[in-house]
Design goal:
The chain is mainly alpha-helical. The chain has 14 helices and no strands. Helix 2 packs across helix 3, helix 4 packs antiparallel against helix 12 and helix 5 runs antiparallel to helix 11. The two termini are about 25 Å apart.
């Protein structure tokens, strides 16, 4: 009869077959969590900002002004450290998300907020996380984790509750709804296109490239922007500058940074927090008191996003039988 000497603590036993235990889910770094939080807060503030300056700027000129400010601010940070530029086919996804996201998405959203209230707009835009999750599962091979689907569904219900509590549904013009849905589709496809770019370029660089492409697309509105700035009150112009620096230059960069660390599907699910955050900012800045449905919906959104971070336990039944 032979005996087996136990292995030293922390060392595998030579007589036992190696166990195929799944690696634990990677935890998001503190910097990644901060990046997500900054993105959500600043993107939520954009809905309020667009509505505030909307009466003074048309959709195209507002987009051009916002992108021009962001291009200058982010360029000051990015250009000194930019050693390598995209070449050849590497420009294809950059041009695509620059046209669709930075130009098309913003023009469509700005136009929609001339017809829809901010809460309804935020709710409609939040079709995007579902589209991103589907596209990420198919195109990026991220799969369809059970808790991601469950959490996304719960969070979307929370967004619907927020929209239910909006007291301005009469402004929900059909054209505005279609523009918001178009913006959601453009943002979803762009997020998928941006993910591979981040393998070579930093978040700031990938964002700046897209902003520059979007700015070029919006140049036809230059004359209109100059005229509107001349006639706009100072607070409206400062609001445009805010939109360019914070929700664009900073928030799109923090989004790209988080996207380089987190799967596209799970990151997109965090944007379900935007409508609830928008309500809180409107409450603080515009003195718009949220409805009870808005408050409940915000809590449900938080619950849904928390569920997307859960991981399914591996099945041990098959291993036990072998």
């Amino acid at each position: 009869m032979t005996t087996t000497t136990p292995a030293e603590p922390g060392q595998p036993s030579s007589d036992l077959p190696p166990r195929n235990t799944p690696a634990p889910a990677a935890r998001i770094s503190k910097s990644g969590i901060i990046a997500v939080a900054v993105t959500v807060i600043l993107w939520a503030s954009a809905f309020v900002g667009i509505r505030a300056v909307g009466p003074n700027f048309s959709p195209g000129s507002l987009t051009l002004g916002r992108l021009a400010v962001a291009a200058v601010v982010l360029g000051i940070v990015v250009l000194p450290s930019l050693k390598v530029w995209p070449s050849g086919r590497e420009w294809l996804p950059i041009v695509a998300y620059g046209v669709m996201w930075f130009a098309g998405y913003n023009v469509a959203l700005n136009a929609a907020e001339h017809m829809l209230d901010a809460g309804t707009s935020a709710m409609l835009i939040n079709v995007s996380p579902i589209l991103i999750a589907v596209l990420a599962g198919v195109v990026l091979k991220e799969g369809f984790p059970r808790w991601l689907l469950i959490g996304s569904g719960v969070a979307f219900c929370g967004v619907a509750m927020i929209a239910l509590g909006s007291g301005q549904r009469s402004t929900a013009d059909v054209a505005g709804v279609l523009l918001c849905l178009l913006a959601a589709v453009l943002a979803s496809v762009s997020a998928i296109l941006q993910k591979p770019v981040l393998r070579k370029f930093t978040a700031g660089q990938a964002t700046w490239f897209g902003i520059m492409v979007g700015t070029v697309c919006c140049l036809p509105w230059t004359g209109q922007l100059v005229g509107e700035i001349q006639s706009a009150p100072l607070p409206a112009t400062l609001g445009l500058v805010y939109l360019g620096i914070f929700p664009t230059a900073i928030a799109f960069t923090t989004w790209a940074y988080a996207l380089s660390l987190i799967s596209a599907g799970k990151l997109a699910a965090t944007t379900y927090l935007v409508p609830g955050t928008t309500i809180l900012i409107s409450w603080a800045v515009l003195q718009e008191v949220p409805t009870i449905w808005g408050l409940i919906g915000g809590v449900v959104c938080l619950l849904g996003v928390a569920l997307t971070r859960r991981t399914s336990k591996p099945r041990t039944g098959a291993a036990a039988k072998s």
